[in-house]
Amino acid sequence: MSHYNTIYNQLLHLIPRHKFESLVKTYNGDYYVKYFTSWQQFITLLYAQIRNKDSLRDIITSLNVQVSIWYHIGLKKICRSTLSDANNRREYRIFEGIFYELLSRCKDITPKHKFKFKNPLYTLDSTVIDLCLSLFPWAKFRKTKGALKLHYLYDHSGAIPTFLVITDARQQDIKVAREENIPLLSDSILSIDRAYIDFKWLYLLGKKKVFFVIRLRKNIKYEIIGQHKVEEMNKKMGVLEDLIIKIGTKEKRKDYPDDLRLVRFKDEATKREFIFLTNNFKLSPYTIAQIYKARWQIELFFKWIKQNLKIKSFLGVSKNAVLTQIWIAMCYYLLLSYIKYQTKYRYSLLELTRILQEVIFIRVSLEYCLT
């Protein structure tokens, strides 16, 4: 099997190189660069993600002991200061652009979500990455704490992030939702938590023909104007009420003048009652409750990336270095997802990362390793 390229070389062939070079030109990534190009920086940091390396010294040492096989991935002589300078100075948006190129490829092969309806299903939420304030003073969160907030739009078809915005941790979730051009097609269903209650924004979603499912705060007033009969089957599944409401008082309905649907649901496992608000009047009330319950998948996603990608310990302290590392980590996540769906790999992404970590420089077919 020696005629094969190494596993790493096969992974790099999944990157749209022509688009990468186009992004490099757009952001002058290789301006006055002698030999350590943007491409070499990318494959070095991607290698660090795959091999779970924690420091620049660790990366360089690991690569130096395998110098005889560098030629096939395009690396030349590399030193710690060169990599550090590139991380600090080279525009992180190059790697952000590659993330979205990989995303478009993943979307073509991802499986559908588990629900029977055909509408695209998304969850919008954020997670916080803690930072040491003395090392990252630009990421001030509290007096003695630094942090970043990663805002994700999570696609339940394929369990992949389809949109990412990185802000300081003080940024409110709803402000990001209002200000960013979140890519939601008409007829999509968006599952969101109470942090996103802003009826002006929700009304705009409705105008774009986007459906939402959100938990209602207890202090929000509403007027019941009708109700749907709850079928016996839905009652057995925990549905208590299915109402048509107007939000707020008559004097304060400018933010959301249309009717809304309110579903009261009791989770038998936890014995807790939940009140869900939606602008979808077609799906069954039980399905509305299950859509919100599916939000938990993004929490599992947050847990996975924090445990298995290098986005909690960083190779540089500048903002550009941190953002570069995060975007390349997310590129690796999409590569893993693409390989899993393209090869119909039966096991988990975690198992896939462990395999790649061990065979990265072995000359064998990638498909052979995953059988």
Task: Please give a structural write-up.
This protein is of the alpha+beta class and 371 residues long. Among the domains are: 151 residues, no CATH class; 73 residues, no CATH class. 40% of the residues lie in helices and 20% in strands. Strands 1, 2, 3, 4, 5, 6, 7, 8, 9 and 10 form a ten-stranded mixed beta sheet that branches. Helix 5 packs across helix 12. The chain starts with 6 loop residues before the first helix and ends with a helix. The model has no long low-confidence stretch (mean pLDDT 92).
Offer a quick outline of the entry.
This protein is α+β, with helices and mostly antiparallel strands.
Question: How do the strands and helices of this protein lay out in sequence?
Answer:
Blueprint: H1 7-12, H2 17-26, H3 38-51, H4 56-64, H5 80-89, H6 93-107, E1 121-131, E2 140-142, E3 145-155, E4 160-168, H7 173-179, E5 189-192, H8 199-207, E6 211-215, E7 222-227, H9 232-236, E8 239-247, E9 260-267, E10 272-278, H10 285-293, H11 296-308, H12 319-343, H13 349-359, H14 366-369
Parallel strand pairs: 1-5, 5-6
Antiparallel strand pairs: 1-3, 2-3, 3-4, 6-10, 7-8, 8-9, 9-10
